[in-house]
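Good morning C.,

I know you're traveling, so I'll keep this short. The sequence:
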Amino acid sequence: MASLTPVIGPGPSEEELDSGLTPPGRTETISDGIFAIVITLLVLNLHVPGTAERQQAGGALQALLAQWPSYLSYLATFLSVAYMWVNHHALFTHVRLVDQKLQWVNLAILLGIGLTPFANALVAAALAGGLSSEAAKVATATYALIFMLATVPWILFWERLARRPELLCPPYTAAWARRERLRGALGVAIYTGGIGVACLSPLLAMGLFLFVALFYVVTARGFALAPHPEGRDA
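The tokens, ready to paste straight into the viewer:
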């Protein structure tokens, strides 16, 4: 597997700087800030049961346990945002320079990340009203749709790097970027399927989302770098 240790490539030349290429530092910094804010917002959907809730549930413990849909949604969404951050960090250890198109694609990634607290709150509220309710099905299908849309920009990012492998740190190549693109495509396919699963069983769909999160956590380092004795390929 590719290492998470940053690969130090040659610095940008004056010609590259004049053409609008920049080091990825600022892009990664603002991204880390957005990820941190989003992860913080997720916990705001958890709340301490009030007096009326405790009385209705029959005690403090019962009131806390009754909020299990919020805990499940929080866990699934936290792990999903976490794997995106880990993969984002791993991605930028291989990026030497970014152009304007990559910056816009990265903003599209952040746009999707920014919607995840909404998806989390939507599912938690809907599941609390019944696992098989119409609201639960709509909420989990919307959750899958949001994460599917949030995964698409990752494919575009790798596609851009495959088209411009000079933006990668050596010895990473266009062929390697194309292989990494497949990981994003797999996520889009699973989340798209999750929309259908949600319409049948919202709880099963949440289990599927947890599986996707764990898959990307385990594979965060990406595919192994294949040897290319002749250097970069097109």
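Safe travels,
E.
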